[in-house]
Design goal:
Structural class: alpha+beta
Mean pLDDT: 87
Number of helices: 21
Radius of gyration: 31 Å
Strand order of the largest sheet: 13-12-14-15-16
Strand content: 5-15%
Number of strands: 16
Length: 574
């Protein structure tokens, strides 16, 4: 029986005959399996049999839906268009129409760049129990590899077919995947139909998780717009910013005090409760009802390396209830150890050579951003992690991340020359390296030393802006204005100084005996041994001066710390 055409009004038996003919072509190899996969990527939600029927009647159909389904997305079937006939689960015929047969609102774009597609698939895989590298060296290869891992977990006999459909859903062409001939795995039409349905079902599991991830991201974007709009109408947020010396129009949102204001807003946008919870924007109470996670707070978005909102940090209004700062909950979307507030917003400034200033909170970052040549980056209450540092360096201008190695400095001098060469003074390293500007309380000082553990391997200058107890960048800005804050940052000292001084203090501080001096030297040498080479000459000079030793003695102790073996004494020392 010839294939059904769109001009016919066929019976169910005629449609089944068409299906048999199409399957016979697949078994014979005259219709490659990859051709069916291309059709399944477009029409798989209609089931295996109907993918064959749609392709037989309209080979180039892109998106096939019923009259009602098109109306639901604000499109209508043009008058006079002939239907594409498919079979319902009950075996009756039903007409559907391709998007080319309709008019109305443009369909949403679905293709993603490879890095964004990988991140979406990584988040979906996390929900399915698979962990993947968040930063693969080659994104396209990692994307295919992850799709194949998911395919193998869900349907081992048809791994590549499942991966093909998953990649197609993300807008990624999968022509590089290899598929065996149908005869190699199917003996008859029943086996082909069974395999086709199982492939669609397995791919559908991944697609369903991808859609949940997409909906969660839509919730985050909608929440950000909601918070910004509420801030403009709240009255108290602009006043609050102005009292801190910050611009009233700074990109700060507001979560209202109501229990369900955001949840109800997202529901009105058609976003499901499951996605609202997955996005970390609401939680279920004991009665099962959703309650907004953030209430009566100033809101700051945290974005991933691609600029997509991953979550929020909300600061309590005044001395109200709850923690001072509240983060989105940890999830596949929100990983606090990989996020930095202000990084995306400062990307152009960093690329132009601005010096990154690592601070603790979002208000501190906004304060630093008022200064020329600086970019405030907030860790939001946690020490900077290696992941955060790597992402930050990826955003910095090459000169800021890896300045030229400095010349060795004399004893007690700086490896970067005199004051004219200090960052912020207009010297030749203006904008190079990193400043850490944490709070001036004991916790902030301890945070400085923890930050050094992540930063000590950098060859770039790493400085510490030391604040008075109780001060931080936002407080200095409020009290002294931008000039006062700039003055503190320009007086920053090498962070390696703090690390070595802390090591000496732990060993006794001011040694009075040869044994105490030896202990202090050993502690200082151990700290210096872990630094990048450009930081070493200055520290050798400082330790020699502080302990009353010559450079050779300190250098020998450093060699011993690096190699783990006593340095061979020079002839004159024997």
């Amino acid at each position: 029986m010839p294939a059904v055409t769109s001009s016919a009004d066929p019976t169910p038996s005629a449609l089944r005959d068409t299906v048999e003919e199409e399957i016979a072509r697949l078994l014979a190899g005259s219709r490659p399996w990859s051709r069916w996969l291309e059709q399944a990527a477009r029409h798989g939600r209609h089931g295996f049999v109907n993918t064959l029927l749609i392709a037989a009647q309209r080979p180039h159909a892109a998106d096939v839906r019923s009259h009602d389904e098109w109306r639901a997305v604000r499109r209508h079937v043009r008058k006079g268009e002939k239907g594409i006939w498919i079979l319902t689960p009950e075996g009756r015929t039903r007409a559907v129409f391709d998007i080319a047969q309709t008019a109305g609102a443009p369909p949403p774009a679905r293709a993603l760049p490879p890095d964004a597609a990988y991140e979406r698939l990584r988040q979906a895989a996390h929900a399915l129990g698979l962990r993947a590298d968040p930063d693969p060296p080659v994104v396209r290869e990692a994307l295919t590899a992850l799709a194949l891992r998911l395919g193998h977990r869900l349907l081992p006999r048809h791994t590549a077919s499942v991966a093909h459909l998953v990649l197609a859903h993300l807008g990624i062409r999968a022509t590089h995947l290899v598929h065996p001939p149908v005869r190699a795995w199917a003996a008859d039409a029943a086996a082909v139909i069974s395999a086709g349905d199982r492939i669609l079902q397995a791919a559908g599991v991944v697609v369903a998780e991808l859609e949940k991830v997409r909906a969660a991201h839509a919730c985050l974007e909608a929440a950000h717009a909601f918070f910004l709009a509420r801030a403009r109408r709240s009255g108290w947020v602009p006043d609050h910013l102005a009292r801190r010396g910050l611009p009233a129009d700074a990109p700060v949102g507001c979560a209202p005090a109501a229990w369900r204001a955001l949840t109800e807003h997202l529901r009105r946008l058609g976003l499901p409760d499951e996605a609202i919870v997955a996005a970390g924007l609401a939680r279920r109470g004991r009665d099962g009802a959703l309650h907004d996670r953030f209430r009566d707070r100033t809101m700051f978005p945290l974005r991933d390396a691609r600029g997509a909102i991953a979550g929020f940090i909300g600061r309590r209004r005044g001395a109200g209830g709850g923690p001072k700062y509240l983060n989105s909950p940890e999830s596949a979307l929100f990983r606090k150890g990989r996020l930095l507030y202000g990084l995306h917003e400062s990307r152009d400034r960093l690329a132009a050579g601005a010096r990154p200033v690592i601070v603790e909170g979002p208000y501190d970052a906004l304060a630093v951003n008022l200064l020329p040549g600086h970019a405030g980056i907030a860790t939001c209450g946690s020490g900077i992690t290696p992941d955060q540092l790597r992402i930050l360096m990826d955003h910095c201008a090459p000169g800021a991340a890896r300045p030229a190695a400095p010349d060795p400095a004399p004893a007690g001098g700086s490896e970067r020359g005199g004051p004219a060469d200090r960052p912020g003074s207009g010297g030749p390293v203006e904008g190079a390296g990193i400043v850490v500007a944490l709070d001036g309380d004991p916790a902030g000082r301890a945070g400085m030393l923890r930050a050094w553990e992540a930063l000590r391997g950098l060859s770039a200058p790493v400085d510490a802006a030391v604040f008075e107890p109780g001060d931080d960048p936002a407080e200095v800005l409020r009290r002294e204005g931008p000039d006062g804050l700039l003055r503190v940052l320009r007086n920053a000292r090498p962070m390696a100084d703090l690390a070595v001084d802390a090591a000496v203090e732990r060993a006794g501080g001011a040694p009075r005996s040869p044994e105490e001096r030896a202990a202090a030297l050993h502690a200082a040498a151990a700290a210096i041994a872990r630094m990048a080479p450009p930081h070493v000459p200055r520290q050798v000079g400082r330790v020699a001066e502080r302990l009353g030793l010559d450079h050779a003695t300190v250098t020998r102790a450093l060699v011993e710390a690096v190699t783990g073996a006593p340095a061979r004494p020079r002839p004159e020392d024997r």
